[in-house]
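[Q] Does anyone have a clean structure-token version of this?
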Amino acid sequence: GWWNSAYGMSKLGLSTYGRLLSRDQDRVVSKNIFVGSYCPGFVATDMTAAYGKNIPLGPDDGARGMVMLANPDTLDKYESGKF
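[A] Here you go.
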């Protein structure tokens, strides 16, 4: 499971850091900065190459969510600091 792998723990750490960062009154909240965390899912990368063609998403699919979070017109749909 994710809890006994460096990869899983690093994702947990980054998600937690995003939540903490989004609450920083002086550097983030007061400047109305949006902090987003995103997991693209099981995407074809060098890390997943051993799975061959059994991977449902390509890099473009994985990037689509990041573009969505970066769009200033949609920021009111998402809560800062949430995964």
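[Q] Thanks! Anything notable?
[A] The radius of gyration is 15 Å.
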